[in-house]
Amino acid sequence: MTWRTGHALLAGAILSCASVPTVAAPQNLFTKVADIPLGEKTSRFDYLSFDSSSGLLYISKMGSAKLLIFDTRRSMLVSEMDGFPKVTGVLAVPELHRVYASVPGAGLGASLSVGLGMASLSSGHGGVAILDTQSSKEIARLPGGVFPDGIAYDPDDKRIFVSDELGGAVEVIDVTTDKVIARIAAGGEVGNVQYDPATGMIYAPVQSHNQMVVIDPKTAQVSAHFALPGGEHPHGLRIARGAAIGYVACDGDDHLLVVDLRARKVLGVLPLGHDPDVLADDPGLKRLYVASESGSLSVFDVAIPTMPRKLADVPVGPNAHSLAVDSATHRLYLPLRDLDGKAAIRILEPVTRP
To answer: pTM for this one?
Structure first.
């Protein structure tokens, strides 16, 4: 595993990114700040995670089996980390000085009995890499199930939760010991995973059964399952801050579900761009973004969390299905796998109006 340094300078004129309105929406929601090269083209990018303390953006270059580090303050690629068979999920946790990365095909195998009423842990061939951001070194690689994907952090219980999509489970990591302490059967294929401080619970869509699984992070046990009517194959998940409202992107029928997490019911269904994947939010602008495999970005006003108002479906780039938002600058970062023969990250800036 090696670190490499790159030098990509901020370049490119500011261009308008036209929207395709679906509701009465402004014709120009964003300006394009720049397209910054991210090395050779690749077959796929996956999740991104922003470290607000350092301004660094961690990017899963899944198709090239690399984890990239992009400096948003200098607008340049600063490092690449290789040595992975593949990288999917990534989560930076600034308070721990750690980055967690999901590594399918890591070749790890383990069996571990745990004492929280769980069955024995069977890891398959996936792993979870733990990286120290201060030393820029990998400090551990743990069993991660069959196909580890999304990652969430519960700061109250000091635990990391990793969705094993194809293994139908959620792995639990104790951040104080850097050890896997439980494997929780979800009852089907698992989508993304999120922690909600308002309810104190972990949530993950069970995409193969159109359900949500609720996990108690303290006991590492399933608390409940509840149905998600109105959408097919729920995969992406974002939770409104402080509102106990979940937004679920269904890639089977291009629907967004608005879910009351306390009442455990769907409040509304809204249309999305084709084949939605990753969700992100900007609490300052009160916006929710849903990126799609088709390259369409669905933009919602979530000033009232229970009643999102769709602003537009904006074409933001080929296969731009993942994104991250810097809530301080409000800029959006969307990796593109092949832009004129090179991988790149597209930086957009919202057009704000008084």
So the answer is: 0.88
